[in-house]
Write a structure and sequence with these properties.
- The chain has about 425 residues and is mainly α.
- It contains 15 helices and no strands.
- The protein has one domain: Up-down Bundle (Growth Hormone, Chain: A).
- Helices cover about 75% and strands about 0% of the residues.
- Helix 1 runs parallel beside helix 7, helix 4 packs antiparallel against helix 5 and helix 7 runs antiparallel to helix 8.
- The relative contact order is 0.16.
Length: about 425
């Protein structure tokens, strides 16, 4: 890939090893996407109990996000990365060893630690290694681990379940996590450097020291103008995604559509893969706002399509559109947050904004599972489309300092007025 040609050999090696560990992590996690809710139903759980167990994954995410963010800033990104991979390797064994709903809920919450830690450490490492003027493009490339892993995992998990049952499925998931752990152990993490703003022009890297972290209180970060809209948007999309990850297999089963739910997630992953490279590169030139707006529109359309889907082709098309939304939204939000955060606070800031996504997933499982008996699985996706549209309206009107600036930024016609001015930053919508 051309983007790697300008990097030194040690940096390229780090990125490729990091990419391999990310691929294995997401394959491990995704193998259980179309199968775990079926397993929980298989052991006799009600719709509410299925939602409770599945939603407890995000409870673990919410509980651990802030802690791992602080740990990434204080002890380094690699430590947090390894914690995430260890959790993703252990959790499938926990599912295999118990059929108690209480214990499954606890294991699922522990499984949530894996994403909290891995995505925080991985995102911060990628940004630390990225030249400022190619930040969006490199984040787009490195984020491909998600759609590639999500393409392999669900299809393999669904096929393995049908062929050999739950035990080999959980062992495969655990083995992928162990392999990712081995890869991640080879990563050499760079030191966390301070912001380059106001720094002497020719200061050598050896003299750049990380300043004390601006340990802002949690609620002060939450209320910060630069972070609150991304946090709310990710909360609403987390609710939609939680509905998607928990109830798509059950909706397909209820509708008696002859379709492997794993292929829905595979279609989403393929679409997510295809959009990341061009949008990441384009966002370095045109800013992040336009692409976040497009992603929220994709989510709204996809949820409406699932709500009305009656055929395999409709589910596949909805998966493709949802995948495009996810493939644009997550890298663009990471880039947007990186633009608005100093290096020594990135772990905490990434963790905070992604907590919105986690909390949405946590709420979606148990609460929407409770309403599933009243409105049916289709009704849940009608609600999810409304939440996605609300996220779009909020981003269009509140993403900058006033309505006009927000609307311009969200349509790619204006700068990000909350972005920090760092030396070497180009084309990222940085305010002047």
């Amino acid at each position: 890939m051309n983007i790697f040609s300008g990097l030194d050999s040690a940096c390229r090696r780090n990125l490729w090893v990091l990419f391999a560990s990310g691929l294995l992590f997401w394959a491990s996690l995704a193998a259980l996407l179309p199968t775990l809710s079926l397993y929980i139903k298989h052991i006799g759980a009600t719709n509410y109990q299925i939602g409770l167990v599945m939603g407890s994954f995000a409870i673990g995410l919410v509980l651990f996000r802030h802690w791992v963010g602080q740990l990434a800033d204080q002890r380094g990104r690699k430590v947090v990365l390894m914690i995430g991979l260890l959790a993703v390797a252990i959790a499938p064994i926990g599912y295999l060893l118990t059929r108690s709903l209480a214990l499954l809920t606890a294991v699922r919450a522990f499984h949530g630690l894996s994403i909290a830690a891995f995505t925080t450490g991985y995102s911060a490492l990628v940004v630390d290694l990225s030249p400022d003027h190619k930040r969006g493009e490199l984040i787009g490339v490195m984020s491909l681990v998600n759609p590639v892993g999500m393409a392999i995992g669900p299809a393999l998990g669904g096929l393995l379940l049908g062929w050999a049952g739950y035990t080999p499925l959980f062992l495969l998931s655990a083995g992928s996590g162990v392999a990712g752990l081995v890869c991640a152990s080879q990563v050499v993490a760079p030191p966390v450097k301070q912001s380059l703003e106001n720094m002497p022009e020719n200061m050598p890297d050896s003299q750049i020291q990380p300043p004390p972290s601006r340990d802002e209180p949690f609620w002060q970060l939450v209320s910060s103008p630069r972070l609150r809209v991304p946090l709310v948007v990710m909360l609403l999309i987390g609710l939609a995604f939680g509905t998607l990850s928990t109830f798509v297999p059950l909706l397909i089963q209820e509708a008696r559509v002859d379709f492997n739910a794993g292929f829905f997630y595979t279609a989403a992953a393929i679409s997510s893969f295809l959009v990341r490279l061009p949008t990441g590169r384009a966002s370095d030139r045109h800013g992040r706002g336009l692409f976040i707006t497009c992603s929220l529109g994709c989510y709204t359309i996809a949820m409406l399509m699932i709500w009305s889907a009656q055929t395999p082709s409709m589910f596949l098309l909805a998966g493709l559109i949802e995948g495009a939304g996810t493939g644009i939204l997550i890298p663009m939000m990471i880039a947007l947050i990186a633009d608005r955060a100093e290096p020594q606070e990135r772990g905490r800031v990434f963790g905070l904004v992604m907590t919105g996504f986690d909390l949405g997933i946590a709420i979606a499982g148990p609460i929407l599972g409770y309403f599933a008996d009243e409105v049916g699985y289709r009704g849940l996706f009608g609600l999810a489309s409304g939440l996605s549209f609300l996220a779009l309206l909020i981003f269009l009107s509140l993403s900058s300092q006033d309505f006009t600036d927000s609307f311009k930024f969200a349509l790619g016609k204006g700068q990000d007025l909350y972005a920090l001015r760092l030396k070497g930053t180009q084309g990222t919508g940085v305010s002047s």
